[in-house]
Amino acid sequence: MAHPKQSTKEKIILGIDPGTNVMGFGILKVTGQHLEMLSMGSVQMKDPDYGLKLKRIFEKVLELIDQFHPDEFAVEAPFFGKNVQSMLKLGRAQGVSMAAALYRDIPISEYSPRKIKQSITGTGAASKEQVAGMLQSILKIETLPKSLDATDGLAVALCHYYQSTSVVAKSGSKDWSSFIAKNPGRVK
What we know:
The chain is built from seven helices and five strands; from the N terminus they run βββαβαβααααα. The longest helix has 20 residues. It has a five-stranded mixed beta sheet with strand order 3-2-1-4-5. The chain starts with 9 loop residues before the first strand and ends in a 6-residue tail after the last helix. The protein is of the alpha/beta class. The chain has a single domain, classed as Nucleotidyltransferase, domain 5, CATH 3.30.420. A hairpin with a 2-residue loop joins strand 2 and strand 3. The protein is globular, with a radius of gyration of 18 Å.
């Protein structure tokens, strides 16, 4: 007697590494616990007009959403730096990409660069090359793209997957200490 087929939940995650000169993106398909990279790439923003760069980011993110129909959107958060103008520009690029996801009613999550590197490599101080190498190993990518912005976008998507499937995330806890407080019997 044949057993009824169990449905395996599938979701698609769009990861964005925002930038006003180069935007990296990665599309990750999750089927149960199986991970598959659907696409990754980078978009060069060559126009000298800053407003047109932001428009290009919005349009490209919408294009990716309409092509891949992601269930979730993850973006790298701007990091605190000494150059305030650079931070403002990066924040605008992030905001425009988030606006595109919101426009299509896709839930958004954001992660710090350190959190992304740590979830992929185990250390928040990893180089872009180390992140790319781990992605190649984890997702069995034959050839890496020339632009590390593309692998950074994919790293954002994979970080989101790891964060959303962790024991802490599933418990509804914000961190390990609140998880332990809510689950004293699970910790020895």
